Please model this.
Amino acid sequence: MATKKKFGWGGARPGAGRPKGSGNGPSPNARKNRVAIMLTDGELEKLNRIATRRKTPVATLAYELIAKGLKGQR
Model:
């Protein structure tokens, strides 16, 4: 019986891929925490319109708005 091959980081050949332990982990400035928010239909439509006008993803625009709003807060 044939076994299913697992494909991942290492590739198909033994020794292929990134060596174990060679990564440094995420940057200290990495955005790694998720926050769920609830928007009304109107708020989401407005966010979509602004993102389309700026030619940027909606999530990036939401992040920029939140980060800008928090900048002056304690």
The chain is about 40% helix and 0% strand.
